[in-house]
Structure formats: structure tokens, C-alpha cells
Amino acid sequence: MKEHQTSSDSMDEYISKYPTEVQEIMQTLRKVIHEAAPDAKEKMSYQMPTFELYGNLVHFAAYKNHIGFYPTPSGIEAFKEELSSYKGAKGSVQFPLNKPMPYDIISRIVTFRVAENAQKNEDKQKNKK
């Protein structure tokens, strides 16, 4: 589905370019991320829906057969056992559209990334003093 991904100015615009069933998955994913990271802000980055909190938190994107989820290499490494049944790379994982989305794992990854980014921000603030 990457063919839909001409530049989008907002997450709503991005999501609206996909078939209804994919839109529903992305809207639920968006809700799960907001629940795990209520202070995160939405933006578009790398032409993908992105959440930021003390820097980029997670990205996601729709493709023909999967949703790509990008929680940075540390987010993948911390959950590598739970993600082992999915295709992935150093900083990404592919969730097939023909299988249930593992929203519980996604929520825990986002919570992990929130803590990680908050700690990095705290360390950065300490180093400025």
C-alpha cells in the first residue's frame, strides 16, 4: 500500500488514504499509542505517522500486506522474544494485516520507549547543569 504514501500533512490525512479495514487498524494503533503515551504529540516524520515525546518515540506505516512499526532498535531488542514470530529488522517489525494486531505488545513497547526517552531527557537536563 505504499503507493498511497505521497506526502501527507497530518496523521488523519495519511490514514484516510487507505482502505477502511486498514484505516480501522491504524486508528486503533493510534489510540493504543496515545493510551500508553498520553503526553506524546502526533506529527508526520519520514512520511509516516510519528509520535514524539522528548524526541521521536515510535512511527508506523501501512503497506500492502502489513503495518510497519518502528520503535527504534532498543524497542525491538527489549521485546525480541515476543516479536520473534514477526518479520523485522534492527529497528522495525512487520505486523501482517491478515493476523490480529498484537496491541498489548505494542502498548508495552510504547511504555518502554516513553520511559527510555524520559530517562534520556532527564540525563540530558542533568548534563546541562
Structure description:
Helix content is 43%, strand content 23%. With 129 residues, it is an alpha+beta fold. The chain has one domain: Aspartate Aminotransferase, domain 1 (Alpha-Beta Complex), CATH 3.90.1150. It has a six-stranded antiparallel sheet. Strand 5 (87-89) and strand 6 form a beta hairpin. Helix 3 (72-78) packs across helix 4 (103-128). Residues 23-114 form the YdhG-like domain. Pfam families: DUF1801 (PF08818). This is YdhG-like domain-containing protein.
CATH class (first level) name: Alpha Beta
Strands side by side in the biggest sheet: 1-2-3-4-6-5
Which architecture would the CATH scheme give at its second level? Alpha-Beta Complex
pLDDT < 50 stretches: 1-5
Q: In percent terms, what proportion of residues is strand? A: 15-25%
The major beta sheet can be summarized as:
6 strands, antiparallel
- Basic shape: globular
Structural class: alpha+beta
- Structural domain tally: 1
Number of helices: 4
State the distance separating the first and last CA atoms.
48 Å
Which fold name corresponds to the CATH topology? Aspartate Aminotransferase, domain 1
The H/E string reads: HHEEEEHEEH
Radius of gyration: 15 Å
Number of strands: 6
Helical content stands at: 40-55%
Mean pLDDT over the residues: 93
InterPro entries: YdhG-like (IPR014922)
Domain YdhG-like: 23-114
Protein name: YdhG-like domain-containing protein
